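### Sample
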Amino acid sequence: MFERSRGGENALLIQPHAGGPPADGVLEEFSELARSAGARVLAVLPARIDKPNPSILIGSGKLEEVKAACDAVGADLVLINHALSPIQERNLEKALERRVVDRTGLILDIFAQRARSHEGKLQVELAQLRHMATRLVRGWTHLERQRGGAIGLRGPGETQLETDRRLLQKRVEMLQKRLEKVEVQHTQMRRARVRSELPRVALVGYTNAGKSTLFNALTGADAYAADQLFATLDPTVRRIELAGGGVVLADTVGFVRDLPHELVAAFRSTLSEAREADLLLHVIDADDPLRDERMAQVDAVLQEIGAGDIPQLLVFNKIDRIEGALARIDSRGEDQQAVWLSARDGAGLELLREALGERLGLRRVAGEIILPTDAGRLRARLHALDAIRSETHDGDGWQLQVDLPLIDATRLAAQSDGAPLRPLLPAAEPAHPVESPA
């Protein structure tokens, strides 16, 4: 019986497809995923599958071709750009005598390498264990050995497989409890940000579109950014100052074609930054020939996680790679704008800041207000917002010179009786006159 190898980085890639040749960009993306996981791609074999074989996915003839190709190039790992059932994975490993990893397992491996925070590591491990739970029936010989027989081990004869299943389930339950505690902490932090009344903006987009580079350029942070798929997994949140006031900006995990559902479920707290945002910055690689397809795939994932209805501002990044391209803002429909920029060179960043302020309603208002002596709480809120430029006090109250974002003035007016702040607010639109009956 085949004993499953735990080594192997020399990979042969199999790209299943139905009918015609594989879609544009699929092979390149899968090869990049393999390299991101640390594999050395030796060869790529397309495999036409009109009807998947329930036992080995591909046909028996193609299986022989794959084994011969592995022997010829010296591959000790086979990566398949398709989801495999546990039986298919087991049978392929026995027939090829090499490790076989499907698309989900490959992405999980990349995530395991990239996770840095405590929460990210817990999420990755939970996703891996859930994926592994259906794959314990393996070619591993130790899983068939029985306990019992030796001194101190005699008993009901529990198999190693049953032991592993029981231990795995306990580990899953423990990870779920830990993640629930972390989620409570993150929920409290998000509530604190909501109470601070700062608009929330989340960066979303296809992996490797340059989100982390743009995040660093806007915030001055040092989030890890590299030209590789899934360079960062853990959400990073920073406050940035625009002309009209502060904004909370969050960097999120990149999306990818056919993102495994195990990962969408495991990274719920990461993706919640997108679900709870007031505005999404949809970052797009402007130089990508498949950018329209990538945009559609990101929108599909946003719908899946419940963020499909949140307004978007499109950001076409990497214009430095397009000859003659200039930073600009253009309109794409009635209620959608697009900013063309280069996060690496800094071209167009000010245009993005202006567009952000406009979309979030961050106009500023300034003027003089008079607060009565019983409005101490409103005065304290104005001080907390650093909105008071000067003030004088007499027996009747305070005379203040203020300058603050319109969105803050509107919220303060809604939370109080509104009278002192009303002169600062724009006049309401006049109502349409009602014609009197003849």
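Residues 10-111 form a domain with the Rossmann fold fold (CATH 3.40.50.11060). This sample (GTPase HflX) is used throughout the tutorial notebook.
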